[in-house]
């Protein structure tokens, strides 16, 4: 028996026990979908308001925006407010899914490798983007990169990662989108 097989055989029951211990009634696919829906909406709002700000500051050739008094202040206020609201939503979403990190074996197929890599990219950028945005509200820049350009580039990475994540998880999202489908599913599993 190889070392890998022995390690895998030793870790598999421990990981299963950890998943059972971490299990909670609130950690359901329905909860994950509802929080994900709110989180996705928050990221889209931040993306659109940030894109508006970016295009005002660096318009494309030939692009002109009419001067609407107060619109920029409103969109930036919305951008910052929703950006701050992302923190509890993101932590809630991560709380509902983190026992899945303990699946064994962690990478079984090429599809799982790609899915885990895309989730790692999504989570890391989703944590970094609002964090540097919040630090920017204090006009404190402890990093060596330019804030505006980096914040803008990360926004595109997040939107792409969210689109990929939704595409991969679409069957689960569709199944648990409505309250009725979740209740039907629960009644089937309880029998």
TrEMBL record:
- What keywords would UniProt list here? Membrane, Transmembrane, Transmembrane helix
Q: Which SUPFAM superfamilies does UniProt cross-reference here?
A: Transmembrane di-heme cytochromes
Residues annotated as transmembrane: 34-56, 76-98, 119-141, 153-177
Q: Which GO terms describe its cellular component?
A: membrane
Output the InterPro entries linked to this UniProt entry.
Di-haem_cyt_TM
List GO BP terms, alphabetically: respiratory electron transport chain
Question: What name appears for this protein in its UniProt entry?
Answer: Heme/copper-type cytochrome/quinol oxidase subunit 3
Source organism per UniProt: Leifsonia soli
């Amino acid at each position: 028996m190889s070392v890998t097989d022995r390690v895998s055989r030793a870790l598999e029951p421990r990981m299963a026990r950890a998943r059972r211990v971490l299990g909670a009634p609130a950690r359901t696919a329905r909860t994950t979908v509802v929080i994900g829906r709110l989180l996705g909406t928050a990221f889209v709002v931040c993306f659109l308001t940030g894109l508006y700000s970016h295009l005002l500051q660096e318009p494309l050739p030939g692009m002109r925006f009419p001067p609407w008094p107060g619109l920029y202040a409103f969109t930036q206020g919305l951008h910052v407010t929703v950006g701050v609201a992302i923190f509890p939503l993101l932590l809630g979403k991560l709380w509902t899914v983190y026992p899945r990190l303990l699946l064994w074996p962690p990478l079984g197929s090429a599809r799982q490798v790609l899915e885990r890599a895309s989730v790692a990219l999504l989570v890391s950028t989703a944590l970094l983007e609002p964090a540097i945005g919040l630090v920017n509200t204090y006009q404190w820049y402890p990093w060596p990169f330019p804030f505006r350009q980096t914040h803008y580039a990360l926004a595109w990475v997040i939107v792409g990662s969210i689109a990929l994540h939704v595409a991969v998880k679409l069957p689960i999202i569709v199944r648990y989108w409505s309250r009725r489908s979740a209740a039907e599913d629960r009644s089937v599993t309880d029998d």
